[in-house]
Write a structure and sequence with these properties.
alpha/beta, Glucose Oxidase, domain 1, 5 helices, 12 strands
């Protein structure tokens, strides 16, 4: 019988590492059970905290926004690329690492969601070190994956060299984001629990909130296996 595996980090978790320099996730209640007989809440956050999707508009002014992308982009066959043995802290994940991963076959990626599995989220997403010393995909690896015909790229790590407190955004930074989004391929960032099932091919559902003319959105990302 198929199982559903939640690949989503819980927004608001007190230990979830947040992107440095971005607004934090803040929940507030404007109705409370004791006073109003119900709870209603508000949230203030940066869209790119926690498990979320990036649309091309994130780095390209004329790129598609999250509400403009077809729904079938965000679901379907997914393929794990197991680079746990070769990914290292603060070091690039290269095309050679991908090609040398167990059972790698570029033909399997055509029309699929590629899942870069480094093990980094298991190690660090609930620690202050998730951003900064993270492994990351270099631009050549990003372009290679896109050349394989992927329809989305999912990762359990940040795609670019780690952001650090006090860092600033500038034109020309974030080469991984620019390489993939420039090809019209969305990113599914910061998933968890890839180690909880053995299947290397599975169904993925990563539907983002339908935010109007916005460059990305939080998502509940789920694997269906078995």
């Amino acid at each position: 019988m198929p199982r559903l595996i939640d690949l989503t980090a819980p927004l608001g978790h007190p230990d979830l590492c947040l992107v440095p320099t971005f607004p934090e996730v803040v929940f507030s209640q404007f109705h409370e059970h004791e006073t109003h007989g119900r709870q209603n809440s508000a949230v203030t956050m940066a869209i790119h905290q926690g498990t979320h999707l990036d649309a091309p508009n994130h780095f390209y002014k004329d790129g598609a926004t999250i509400d403009e992308m077809p729904l079938d982009t965000f679901c379907g066959r997914a393929v794990k690329i197991d680079i746990r043995a070769t990914s290292k802290r603060e070091q690039p994940i290269t095309k050679a690492h991908i090609e040398g991963s167990p059972g790698f076959d570029p033909a399997r990626l055509d029309g699929a969601i590629a899942v870069s599995w480094s093990g980094w989220s298991k190690e660090a997403i609930f620690t202050p070190d998730y951003f900064g010393p993270n492994p990351y995909l270099d631009a050549e690896a990003c372009n290679f994956l896109c050349d394989c015909g992927i329809k989305a790229l999912c990762m359990d790590h940040a795609i670019d060299p780690g952001m650090r407190p006090g860092g600033t955004a500038s034109k020309g930074d974030s080469p991984g984001h620019r390489a993939v989004l420039g090809r019209g391929v969305p990113l599914i960032e910061h998933v968890i629990n890839l180690d909880t099932f053995d299947e290397t091919e599975f169904e993925m559902f990563a539907f983002p909130l339908k935010l109007y003319k916005i460059e990305g959105a939080p998502a509940r990302v789920v694997a269906r296996v078995g």
